[in-house]
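Running this now, will post back.
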Amino acid sequence: MRVGFAGLGRMGAHMASNLVAAGHDVTVWNRTPGKARALADRTGCAVADSPAALTEASEVVVTMLADDLSSEAVHLSEDGLFAGGGARVFVEMGTMSPDHIAALAEAAPAGCTVIDAPVSGATQAAEEAQLLIMAGCTEAEAVPLMPLFDAMGRATICLGAIGAGAVMKLVVNSLIHGINQTLAEAMTLAEAAGIASEAAFDVIENSAAAAPMLKYRRPLYLDEAAHDVTFTVALARKDMQVTSALAERLGTAMPQGRVTLDRLLRAEAEGYGARDMASILQFMRKDRT
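Update: finished.
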């Protein structure tokens, strides 16, 4: 399949590489051209010089962008994805608000389809094609896209309607960020009582409170500085702000989510924004009295 891929960040570069490895004819575009050229040199994929040109070279365009504003710019600018002919299906796999997904569907050229298909999994899962894909479409609508989804993920769950994928991604991430905050509090408590960090983590990881993210993020919790950033505090804050706004619009109480958002806002204000979300443990340690 001729696939266009826009957004070659920590996740997107791995996802695009896996599409190439699966035998698809991949063309890429990135706001920072050097990343697109580096991927082309490494994988043999083609490079488009604009989002519109990416659409023209593709049957399906996949985007993995950071937020609503970046997605809006890439899709709707003068030389954006929607300005090009060619591709008739646009799959947004980044973490977006459901309102933005609805706006993209409304703005799409006649005869074109927008599908939200955000993913769950960190950079290692992206590299190993082990992502969970949450698709805002029916199973029938997903059938033509399954060769792409199977090349990037371990499972695809179809949620029936546009925007449902975006909602479920926010639901999952609100749980992840809540676990991140609670882990930081629990570890700080154990350390304050004189229990070594590694021993405390051993117990948590083998207890009923264990979650997969704790296992694969353990190295970052225990020695954040020695490992590459996988998901920043700033992105976590963005997720929780979008989630909080959605909950308010739907009339759903999220008291735990509000606490998580408050902590992320405070950490970002104190210079933690570009650090990995695991740095919330360090943020909590410094406030220990």
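Residues 97 and 242 are 6 Å apart (CA to CA). More later if anyone needs it.
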